[in-house]
Amino acid sequence: MSAPGSFGALLAYAKPHRKVLAASLGITLLASASGLIQPKFAQEILGRLALGTSVAGPILILAILLVAGALLTGLNAWLQQRTSERVVRQVRRDLVFRLIRLRVPELDQRPPGDLIARVTSDSTLLKSAATEGLIMSVNGVLTFIGAIVMMATLHLGLLAITFVVLLLVGVVMTIVLPRIKAAVARAQDSVGVIGAMLDRTLGATRTVKANGAEARETAAAQEAVEDAYQAGLVGARYSAIVSMVGGASIQTAFLVVLGVGGVFVANGSMAVSELIAFLLYVFFLASPIASLVTGTSMLQQGLGAVGRIGEVAGMPIEEDVEAPGVPLVAGPPPAIELRGVEFAYPGRAPALNGISFSIPGGTQTALVGLSGAGKTTLFSLLQRFYEPSAGTVLIGGVDISTLSRAEVRRRIAYVEQDAPAMAGTIRANLLYSAPEASADQIAEALRVTRLDGLITRLADGLDTPVGPRGVTLSGGERQRLAIARALLRRPQVLLLDEATAQLDARNEQALSEVVTGLAAHCTVVLIAHRLSTVIEADQIVVLEHGNVRAVGTHRSLVDDDELYRELAATQLLAAE
Ligand SMILES: Nc1ncnc2c1ncn2[C@@H]1O[C@H](COP(=O)(O)OP(=O)(O)OP(=O)(O)O)[C@@H](O)[C@H]1O
User: Which stretches are transmembrane (predicted)?
Assistant: First the structure.
């Protein structure tokens, strides 16, 4: 695979469209060739006029060439732009596919706004580079060679003079073009930062407003806006230099050729018609040079974006999560076993230090411990969001590292710590875990989670939108919605991360009873900070600094474990 940002990587995007691009290049060359022979016809017409013979033939051919050239140019523009759109569509499809499947460790490190910018903004820059830029560059080179050959047939001395002047363009382009690429990459990085900043701010609007931090957030985003502007200016400056040198060199070449050619004509070593044809070629050169300049600038801009797009292609994804239409795994609730499980987040002290304990199938186990003890981390390992650095996790006696992630996750329903609802309606949120759920099943899940009252109060009932991240619901309603979603999944294993933390006493009690009842159908593991859920548990695992400190029932732990007793006596496990 080509390195991100390399020309090879850019070509890879164009490769699937090589036939259309080749056709388009062919048309471009044809149009250029027709332009290339026009000065020859002009020379012919001038010659015939001098001799007094008919010029009708050459004029007719010239007219046909002009019309055909215009038609071909139109067709070409359409072909190129359609291909550009297709390239962008493919890049966006690939990026979206990969971003949704990025591994959790990668996602935990990357600001979503920057990742989004790669799909929206970087891909747009690639648009013209992978098609128009490529064709213009190749066409520029080939037409340039064509013009040089034609000029060589007219006068070698004048060609040599023209060359010297044009050499300047080559030197300037070699120096300037890599700088355009760097400037574009910097500008795109800044666009990514703007996305990341806004994502951060808009994702926490209430915190921003409550802290009166609008000015600070605006200033931070404006800094990135300014960076993008400055980088854009640098790119614009270099592009201007290239165009200026391109244009000036043509004019210089024209004047020099006119002067020197004039001398040749005066001393009779060159015909006037030859000089005029040669001068027309010098002017004609402006077109391939402009093509080259614009085309290579576009390519450099594309390369700046290709680097950022290619980075995503290099990020590891979860390749084993595709399971379209595969039903949840049915069967008796499985036992869960952890054997010597060790884990550390990148660059952090170990979060789990060789944990071992068993959860019998069809029971309810509560994990308790001080904040940061490693409870949520354990859930992440159970679902293979992260992999342990040592030890084994077994579900139903099977080492989950031998199963695909899809298979592991199909057994499990998970209610996250902050129970996020997804933008959309209440119904969409419920069906997210179980698209096939019947109206009766939905009604039952709502009844159990005591959401039925809320639904009847809402004018649009189940079709009420919940807003971004479910902001139009209360914290407790959001939590109950997440639990209802998990129940509809009818999982073998139910993981509840402090799922009842935001519920009022009545709802909490009701849900605790539901959860206890569920243990008959699935293995329930819950992270608990409150006593009511813990008391009912068949087993309680007390974690401390990534170690299992004690395992037992509420009664036995109150008697035997000091930390548990302390937890039970304080707000963590509220009043007995
Ligand atoms: N994604 C992450 N990247 C790096 N470190 C993390 C990450 N998630 C958690 N940690 C760290 O790992 C340790 C264990 O965190 P974990 O979330 O498992 O604790 P917890 O017992 O669930 O705490 P709480 O009860 O407060 O939710 C903590 O020190 C935490 O700072």
Answer: 59-79, 133-152, 158-177, 240-266, 278-299
